[in-house]
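Z., the sequence and structure:
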Amino acid sequence: MPSDTPVLARWLIGKTLVRETAQGRTAGTIVETEAYVPGDAAAHAFIGRTARNNSLFLPRGHAYVYFIYGMHFSLNVAGERAGVGGGALIRALEPVEGIALMQARRGTQRLTDLARGPGRVAEAMAIDRALDGVDLCVRASGLWLADAVRPVGDVGTSVRIGISKEAERLLRFYERGNPHVSGTRRLRM
């Protein structure tokens, strides 16, 4: 796993995110990420280490799960060495396993709406703060990263979505043309 956050964010495209719960297994191909690098004013780590963002400062490959806007959880993969805050936000998945369970959790049948956007990813995959800090390289954690289940298409780069600070940085990575990628049509091509 790469130790540089933007390289990690790009590397994650095509990998599989797997979640095992008592309800069953769900999995999706990662099709969109955003990098939040050390010193980045838009990053949760910018203010320094706190109780809330502590997991961003764990060694790369650990989960940072946080609650945002008072309504959604989001998942980041810590992307730096221990003590340095940086992470790759998982923005979208293409569902590949446990689709009926994802549909029940999300309350929709539409496949492209199951995990397009970070809040939807968390809801579809039953990700909450209980998973904050787990090692995503260890299957026993109940949430882990696995190899790709299909060849990855062309990967695009763009500005990040939904932020106001340092928004112009080209730190968003996505599988071009994939209907599960979030954002406007212009940001998916």
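The mean pLDDT is 92. Residues 78 and 178 are 25 Å apart (CA to CA).

Let me know what you think.
H.
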